[in-house]
# Entry
Amino acid sequence: MATATRLVRKSFNSPDEVRPFEGKGHMDVVDVGGIIGRAVFEPGWRWSTNVKPIAQTDSCLAAHAGYVISGRIRIQMDNGDEEEFGPGDVMSCPPGHDAWVVGDEQCVIVDWAGYTDYAKR
# Structure
């Protein structure tokens, strides 16, 4: 993210852009000199089902750095490594993965690294 040259205030309550996830959630995007996204993944959301048709790649090729606010998400790397993240967890995830919501609670994540083109049509 670039160094700020002026004070900027944005809110996820009035995002610059909203990107839907094929009926299973959405991502609110704000640009504060760099893109920050708040993803809301509904129960049943899975990258390979709900974002792959948008991305048109075999796996997610975005690198992510994020903070889980609520819910749980499991990430499986293309090499088979897996990790589950929940509220309060900070994550760093390289490109080449699938991900899905675990359980029946929506998962909300703020990501400041990987959402510039994520799920962008």
